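ok so I'm stuck.
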Amino acid sequence: MKPESMDKVFQALASSVRRQMLDIVRVQPGCSVGEVARHFDVTRIAVMKHLAVLEHAGLLISEKKGRTRALYFNTVPIQMIHDRWSTEFSALWAGKLTAFKYRMEQSS
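replied:
not stuck anymore, here's the structure
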């Protein structure tokens, strides 16, 4: 992955609003722009601008269906960034430590 592509991903993920939008699309694959916009107290144009940033970073795939657009979360750019800085060995231990952290957080 080129550095400028990674920059776009990090910039897109820097916004908590855009991360919330990705969460919505992840949970509801194929949802429309209107369905995403219902979760926010901003104009539809503002939502569309955020979605455009996500799409430009490759994190969102938009498919035209009639008069609406179906939105899908694309995890590939995030996985490519993860792969760049991790090895098989570190991924194994990171996964175990993450699972342990989640268990501890649930028990408190």
